[in-house]
Amino acid sequence: MRVKVVEPRFRLWNLFTLGLIGIILCLFVGFGYRDRSAGNNISNNDDDGQEIKAISVFVLMGKTGSGKSSFINSLNGTDAFGRKPVVSDGIDSSTQSPTVYLTWIGKRKILLLDTPGFDDSARDNLEVLNDIVSSLYSFALRPEDFEMRGVIFLHDISEIRFGGSQKKTLGILRAIVGEENLGNVIVGTTMWSSTWDAGKLKQQEKRERALLDDQWGGIRKTTRLSRDSKNVAVQIIYDLLAGPPALLLAQTEMLQPPHTIEATTVGKLAMPEGRQELEDLQRKVREREKEFEAESKRQEALLQEQVRDTKRKFEAQEMRSRQKEESQRLKQQEDMKKFEGKLRKEFKRESKSIEDKIRKDTKKREQEEKEIRKLEEDLRVKLIKRNKIRVEKARKDAEEQEKIKAAIKRLEKPPVLTWFANLISIILTWFR
Ligand SMILES: Nc1nc2c(ncn2[C@@H]2O[C@H](COP(=O)(O)OP(=O)(O)O)[C@@H](O)[C@H]2O)c(=O)[nH]1
Ligand SMILES: [Mg+2]
Predict the structure, then answer these.
(1) At 111, which helix (H) or strand (E)?
(2) pLDDT tens-digit map of 214-224
(3) Residue 64 Cα, ligand 1 centroid: separation in angstroms?
(4) Residue 125 alpha carbon to ligand 2 centre in Å
């Protein structure tokens, strides 16, 4: 975390601020500021119809949200670029540094210096003070152009407590203005309750009286303002214009050597306190930095531990998945082996049964062949036998025929006996 440390000295950039304000003012003074809408309908009793050359300067102070921008708006004040002040609806859009707004009231050129509240968190209070005093100094350096007409201090009456920050702001205001010039300060009270809320209104009036007695002693007067009370705002300006112009204490002091804020009453009041605040702030920053460093280290260690943890988990997971893959692979291998063994066994069994079958078939075939051979043999023997028989028979038949032929021959001139013999032989042949 980077914190801007502001050294409350009258530094180079203050000169730059002065220069810038000077240029803006030259523009307004040199070329004339022509927006006269704010005071056109209000007569200017002091001017006697004469346009007054010097610009009347009014300083607007008060907490953020007290209604400063609204007040400037009601007077139609615009900056060097013609822009109206931003009426804030939150802390972010609040004024960060003193800003010059210009307007006309009657024939008077009016300069309204809008200042940041001392309670603003965006900038260090010392820096705010530095800016305000620097701006005031730039007006004091040109008395022929600028008349210091007074300070309008706006206070939010709805705030119940007049707390430390308000007391501090009031103290700074008094130190800037100087007790002898408090007659040039008007307190504008804002945020009044509506008349129908009589109870609240009574409380606020009581608070206003108490503040007048306890806090605002010596000031010119208090005036009640509403959100867009143009006439009241103009009246405040006229009230302050009624008195003589007077430099504020801080301006008188700045005009004297050594021309430093440290030498002014407000500087003496705010700086030790501011320095203390600054030191406290710096201490807090250092503490925060240390805490932040320790926290960053702790976070870093935590992160590293987490990284290691994740890595470990990842590695374990990887290992587990690798082991799982490996065991799966081994199981697959085993399954394959088993399957192979089974296949082999089956193959063996199959081949054995095929071999057995082949062997049996072969045996059977051999047997059959043998039987065939035997049959063939038998057949052959039978055939031979039959042939033999046939041959024998044929021979015998031939013999018989011979005999028959012989008998027939004999019968051709056969004796009875021969004939008889032949007959018997024929019968015998038939029987066979
Ligand atoms: N009720 C009420 N609201 C106001 C009054 N003056 C200003 N406001 C509102 O208060 C808020 C802050 O006003 P602004 O002028 O920006 O305050 P600044 O921070 O002092 O410049 C805005 O919303 C205004 O409209 C007032 O008198 N009465
Ligand atoms: Mg504002």
Answers:
(1) strand 108-114
(2) 888 888 888 99
(3) 9
(4) 16
